[in-house]
Design goal:
This protein is of the alpha/beta class and 578 residues long. The protein contains 24 helices and 17 strands. The longest helix is centred in the first third of the chain and has 18 residues.
């Protein structure tokens, strides 16, 4: 088992311990251990095999025994014993927004609710009103959360889909049956959430069709019968792997360029292209581009677009909006590249809820080729995340000053992720905020505001003279929480007026705000900061998702704050404070 799988089991144990009403310190220990294991730079399976696990902070004897059993057998007797005391459907209730283990236990013990259907029925029958801690508003929120969950059922995060696809690509390459393998569909275009993954396969030589089908169906999830295999034809095989539908398209080499373009999509983009082809007396489909019955010679995907009198259009832009018109007019933007990112903004350390020290985070950034790190631990109101008191914040500032002398020319900018309080104010007095290099303001509480209240809260925060960056503007968590609505026009006007930067939070569970919002903001001249919201050195890798979303939003390096040099961003921060 890899670290992520081991961590997932520890997290499950933590949840079931809380469901069972066990000592909360025990549950928190497993939850913290899950984070440590998931983010650890070495394989825990290797550590266990080489007997090097002892001494790792947060991994005591009991948790160590669980990990050894998992690594050796793939199962946990502790988890199995905990699960045996609960109905199977109870775990799904924990995925409903607003329901934690304590509330789920209460629903089960008092009302016998053990699955999502029973919960929805009980809400519609007003049965939750009899329970302490529940009321009409609680029922309304739960029903909205259930509707949200149903809407996105069988959807997957981009990062999860990408990981499954990468695993499949590695397995397919080992089989040696395919000359080339391409990711296609919405995964190649970089959508935040996906229903399936499309993989294009070019067979090697005269491969036997039956052999190819067999090789692909072997990749399906194990289960009774053939439930992991959705369908298996001559040119398309669909399987389910870790809950994700994966569609394999087997394509002959002559059709490879056209098929890659076609199966990348989007449907809307392809419709526009086909209309353009007709206007030129051509026909196009997944097999090629044709003039009458003659197939045009296409050496690669660029040639497909060239046949239509267009430059190659990056996959991220192919959403059927204005990309074809812009390409025809020679006005496609130069999109930001990962190599143009010079620094990391929005990084946490062990001062609050991060897993590594400031120096460890800084060295990881420097070793990755970045020029600077913008440190922003949680502010004092975030007690759940170890928020910093004023004294602790000043202690951190002093440490950063010493590290900057030690690590020069690498630079650490000392900031804070300040909670935006209920009235829109920031979490420290202005004299304290004035000591910092920058301030990220984020809403972490009271996320069920009416749009008017949410807008006013954001506008007051943005008007604060020490606010530098507005963090994860909607508060949404993908597939878990819809977030709050706000008046975008008013917010954009305030960001412009006050010269405040809009964050795109690159955490794959957030990717907030979505790329269309970033696109509209950038066209208003509002700069965008790509922020990994990193809590460990490994989380710095979230930047790649931010770059992908920035490209979808048509952003170039001049619109992305992280593309500034260390001198430029220093000047930007100083100018913002006046």
């Amino acid at each position: 088992m890899n670290n992520k799988e081991l961590a997932a089991t520890l997290k499950q144990i933590s949840v079931y311990q809380e469901l069972a009403g066990e000592n909360p310190f025990k549950s928190r220990a497993f939850e913290r251990a899950a984070r440590i294991v998931e983010q650890y730079p070495e394989s825990f399976a290797t550590l266990i095999a080489e007997e090097r696990m002892s001494g790792i902070q947060g991994i005591g004897k009991g948790i160590g025994d669980v990990l050894r059993e998992l690594a050796g057998t793939g199962r946990s007797s502790v988890l199995e014993q905990l699960k045996a005391g609960f109905p199977a459907g109870l775990e799904e209730l924990l995925t409903v927004g607003g329901l934690g283990p304590k509330r789920v236990r209460l629903l089960w013990q008092k009302l016998g609710i053990s699955n999502l259907g029973e919960l929805e029925y009980a809400c519609r029958e007003n049965r939750l009103l009899a329970l302490e801690g529940f009321g009409e508003k609680s029922q309304e929120k739960i029903l909205k959360a259930i509707a949200f969950k149903k809407r996105f059922r069988e959807m997957h995060l981009y990062a999860e889909t990408e990981a499954i696809a990468a695993e499949l690509l590695e397995l397919l390459e080992r089989k040696g049956l395919f000359a080339r393998i391409h990711l296609a569909g919405s995964l190649r275009r970089g959508k935040r959430i996906l229903k399936d993954a499309d993989i294009l396969l070019i067979p090697r030589g005269q491969a036997d069709a039956g052999q190819l089908r067999s090789a692909l169906t072997e990749l399906a999830d194990d289960g009774p019968g053939d439930e992991g295999v959705i369908g298996a034809g001559e040119t398309k095989v669909s399987i389910r792997r870790r809950g994700l539908q994966v569609d394999f398209r087997i394509v002959e080499p002559d059709s490879e360029p056209a098929a890659l373009q076609h199966f990348t999509g989007s449907k809307e983009h392809n419709t526009i292209l086909r209309g353009r082809a007709r206007s030129l007396g051509l026909k196009m489909n997944e097999y090629g581009v044709f003039r009458g019955d003659e197939s045009l010679s296409l050496e690669d995907e660029t040639a497909v677009y060239r046949a239509l009198g267009l430059p190659w259009i990056p996959p991220e832009l192919r959403e059927g909006e204005e990309e074809v018109e812009a390409a025809a007019a020679g006005k496609l933007p130069r999109l930001v590249e990962a190599g143009e990112i010079r620094g990391m903004i929005h990084v946490h350390s062990s001062y609050s809820d991060g897993l590594a020290s400031v120096e460890e985070m800084a060295r990881s950034c420097r070793e990755s080729g970045y020029e600077y790190l913008c440190l922003s631990d949680h502010s004092r109101s975030a007690g759940y995340a170890g928020g910093l008191s004023i004294e602790r914040l000043r202690e951190q500032m002093a440490e950063v000053a010493g590290l900057n002398r030690k690590l020069a020319p690498f630079r650490i900018f000392c900031g804070i992720e300040s909670d935006i309080l209920g009235d829109g104010s920031l979490d420290y007095p202005e004299d304290v905020l004035a000591e910092l290099d920058f301030v990220i303001g984020s809403i972490h509480s009271n996320l069920t505001m009416k749009p008017e209240a949410a807008t006013e809260r954001l506008l007051r925060a943005v008007a604060n003279p020490y606010m530098t960056i507005l963090g994860h503007a909607s508060g949404a968590l993908l597939l878990s929480r819809a977030g709050y609505d706000y008046d975008e026009e008013k917010l954009f006007a305030a960001l412009e007026k006050n010269r405040v930067v809009l964050e795109h939070n690159c955490n794959p569970h957030r990717l907030d705000p979505d790329w269309p919002v970033l696109k509209r903001a950038a066209r208003r001249g509002i700069p965008v900061a790509l922020c990994p919201d990193a809590h460990s050195p490994q989380d710095l890798g979230y930047m790649r998702y931010g770059v992908l979303m920035a490209r979808k939003a048509w952003l170039g390096p001049d619109q992305v704050l992280n593309c500034m040099t260390v001198e430029e961003i220093d000047g930007f921060f100083r100018a913002r404070k006046g």
